[in-house]
Structure formats: C-alpha cells, structure tokens
Specification:
It is an enzyme of class 2 (transferase). By secondary structure, the protein is α+β, with helices and mostly antiparallel strands. It has a domain of 40 residues. It contains 18 helices and seven strands. Strand 4 and strand 5 form a beta hairpin.
C-alpha cells in the first residue's frame, strides 16, 4: 500500500507546478516518513488539537484577552528600570512579563484568524498559529510570582520557551514564500502582515530577554547603580569597523564554493569615522551587515569573477557617525539592477521561480529544522515543557553564566547569517528592512545600472531614541 502511495505521488508530480521539492532534495528525505503525513491534507490538520472549527471560532478565553490593552514599553523605561534594582523590582518585572505576553500573543492569534482561510491554513502559518496559541495558553496559566525562588523557576521556563519557539522565524519566512505561490494575496497585504508579525516577535523576545538580564544582574550585584548611558545588558558595545570585518570574513568563507580563489575576492575597504562605537544587539547587526555584504559580494563576483583571474573590485563602506545616528554606505561595482526592480526587493512577495528556489533552500540550511512540535498533556492542554534539574537547564540560559554581559539567547538570525552562500533565501532585504525600521533606522538602495549599487543603512543610536524605540509594538 505504501509503495503504491509513493508511486501515485510520483505519477502526478507533473501537475504540481508550484512544487519546490525536487528529486535531489527528496533523495535525502525518508519518503516513507513523508507518505505518513498524506492523511493530514484536509481543511484542518488531523494532527492538531488546536486547529479545528470549534477552537477557531468558539474560543472565549482568547476573546477575553483581546479586550485587554498591551502596555506600551519603551527602551528608556526598561533602561531606567534596571539602573538600580531591588527584590520588588525583579518580582514586578517577572509579573509584567507573565501578564503582558498573553495579551500580545492574543493580538497576533487574532490577526492570523482573520486571514483568508487559504492563507492561515498554510502549513507554516498554521504552525505559527498553533505555536502562538500554545505559548498563550502556557503563559496565562503561570501563577503570580511572589519570591525570588519562584522567579528563578519562571526564568527557566521562559528561557526554555524562547528556545523551543526559535523556528517560528523560519516558519514565518517560509509561509510568506508559499503564500506568494499559492494565493492571490496582494503585495501590500502580505508585507503589512509580515512586518507586524516580525516586529511583534522582536518586542516579545526583547521584553523576555530584558527580564532575564535584570534577574542575572541582580544576582551578580544587587546593590549596584548603573551609569547614565545604560540602556540594558542585552545590548552590546559594537565597534563598527570590527563588526564589519567579522561579517565580511564570514560572508567570504560562505562563498568559496562559487569562487574558490578567496584571495581574489573583493576587499572590504572601510573609511570615514572608523572609530565609531555604538550599542546594538549583535545578532541583529550581523544579520543586517551579512545580507547587504552578501548581495554586494555576489553581484561583484557574478559581474567580474567569471571573466578574469585578477583581484575583483572592492566593496567600499563609508561610516558616518552623527550625534543621533550611525550611517553605513556600502558601495559595490556589481553591475547594479534595473530601476523597475528596486521596489520589489523590499517585498516578501516573490516571483514563483524565486519562491520555489528559496523554499527548497530553507530545507537545506544546516542546523535549521523548522519541524518541531509543541508539548501537550495527554488531555491536549498546552504545557511549558518538563523542566530538568535547575543546574542542568541553567547551562543553556543566561542564568547559567556568571555574567550576562556579552551573552544572549539563541537566535535564528545566527543560523541564517551563518548559512552557506548556495542556500539563497530571497528574503534577506525585506527582513532587514523590518529590523531597521523597528530600531528607528532606515535601509535604502540606489542603483546605477551597468555599474553598481549603493546601499545606505541608517541605525539610530539607541541612547538618543530610547523613548521611541518600538518595544510597544505588540
């Protein structure tokens, strides 16, 4: 029976015009395992105890939370809160996270519910829906936190939840690509939806990570007073020139498959305010630099590398350090692009052939496995997961380090940044655009067709904009 099922799938492969799983990929996947999931192809997934008509339209608990308003939070508020800590401040912070996250998750669940059925039932977006509801259900059941010991247990739980739901970013990106292929949602609607989901995800994770860092800071030095410029320990002091060189080297190493002569790759020439230092979240910065430089190196290699054995033209970065912003102008001689294509590079909606290629590459990224389940009780209730011995799980969290400074939670951005060049995703610039907008920055590109491109990345100095940084984007 199983063999005939697989043969039937092969027989009709020609009609799946939007298929992105090619024979090369299937040869590395257990086809028996794939065939076991054919029964799940229905209006609602048979494996889910959440995605069904009764839950979808008759969830009174969710409706109750939708009547509550999220509390606006700015970076200045968080920074001021952490300058001088006390036991009560730590407990208040823990209860704020406990109360705030279910409200914010409820809003995004409602956004997913109001999408057209053919979109929310997409495999990846359905996974997001189920994941968000599990988080919502788990957080709303956590009781009030009344002691530092209870806060320690709470930190273990939220740290584990952050790691368990890392793959949601990959699912969001893959969902947007599949929606581009299989539905008629217009570009503006898809971009607005993706931007809101990504901003909200960043806000929630920052609120959680900030509480983890406050807890560790209080454990290390309960009576310390932070300096005036302090904005939080989840932000790193980044020396611009050093970060650019780190990212450039990583990008070059990822491209040796297409251009083995690394010595002839474009040099990174940096000028301007080369002593610039600013505070930022390092995985975010690496991802932003990485996607821009990857595009510049690729364009230069494809334009010049196939016709010469000489050193390729450099990629030039000019750093401008103003009072409130740091600006990076990245210039290449990669041939540029037609002006009518410039607008489309910022959109999550991609051409069918590019979307299929990107989706296949997502499956091949080493270490990125988006197919993780949510833990439920035998009765189907959401769980926060079984918690191992405290000493064991703390090793994998910020609380396992003697100092939180310089440490951060795991990040899907790290996996995407470190991926081999051949796994092109096509969504780097749209995601970068959302991230820079979130931090009150800007990302623009100008192209001189036939010569090259200039990309201008503007990052606001968080100390000057801490009152408006958009942590309040629920």
């Amino acid at each position: 029976m199983l063999r005939s099922c697989i043969k039937s799938t092969r027989r009709y492969k020609s009609i799946t015009s939007f298929s992105y799983i090619d024979d090369d990929f299937l040869s590395t996947v257990n086809k028996k395992e794939i065939s076991c999931h054919l029964q799940n192809l229905g209006p609602f997934p048979s494996y889910s105890n959440i995605l069904n008509p009764q839950h979808f339209y008759q969830n009174q608990i969710l409706l109750d939370y939708l009547q509550r308003d999220p509390h606006p939070v700015s970076l200045r508020q968080l920074a001021g809160y952490g300058k001088k800590l006390s036991k009560q401040k730590i407990l208040d912070s823990a209860n704020f996270v406990r109360i705030e996250l279910p409200i914010r998750l409820a809003l995004r669940i409602r956004d997913l519910q109001t999408l057209p059925f053919g979109i929310v039932n997409n495999f990846h977006l359905a996974h997001i829906y189920e994941s968000y509801y599990h988080l919502f259900n788990a957080f709303r059941k956590i009781p009030s936190i009344r002691s530092l010991e209870e806060n320690d247990k709470f930190c273990i739980i939220i740290s584990k939840l952050l790691d368990d739901h890392l793959t949601n970013l990959a699912h969001l990106m893959m969902g947007s690509l599949e929606v581009s292929l299989l539905t008629d949602i217009n570009q503006s609607e898809l971009d607005t939806f993706m931007s809101q989901m990504l901003r909200s995800r960043m806000s929630r994770r920052l609120i959680v990570e900030e509480h983890l860092s406050l807890t560790q800071s209080y454990k290390d030095s309960p009576n310390s007073v932070k300096p005036p410029h302090y904005i939080g320990e989840i932000f790193h002091n980044c020396k611009a020139i050093d970060q650019l060189k780190i990212v450039s080297e990583a990008v070059k190493n990822s491209m040796v498959d297409i251009f083995p002569n690394k010595d002839n790759m474009p040099e990174l020439e940096i000028d301007g305010d080369t002593k610039t230092t600013f505070q930022f979240i390092e995985p975010h910065l690496h991802y932003l630099f990485g996607e821009i430089l990857r595009n510049s190196y690729e364009a230069t290699i494809m334009t010049h590398g196939l016709h010469t054995s000489k050193k390729l033209p450099p990629v030039k970065v000019t750093i401008i350090d103003s009072k409130r912003q740091v600006i990076f102008r990245i210039s290449d001689r990669g041939g540029g692009m037609p002006h009518d294509k410039l607008k489309s590079i910022w959109s999550f909606r991609k051409r069918p052939e590019l979307a299929r290629e990107s989706l296949a590459n997502f499956h091949r990224i080493p270490g990125l496995s988006p197919y993780t389940g949510n833990e439920v009780s035998p009765g189907g209730s959401s769980m926060v997961g079984s918690v191992p011995a405290t000493s064991q799980i703390l090793k994998n969290t910020s609380l396992g380090d003697s100092h939180f400074v310089g440490q951060s939670k795991k990040s899907t951005l790290d996996q995407l940044f470190n991926r081999p060049y051949k796994y092109k995703l096509g969504l780097g610039l749209p995601v970068c655009k959302v991230y820079t907008d979130y931090w009150n920055g800007d990302l623009q590109m100008n192209s001189l067709e036939g010569y090259g491109s200039d990309t201008c990345l503007t990052l606001s100095k968080l100390g000057y904009h801490s009152n408006v940084v958009q942590l309040d984007r629920a």
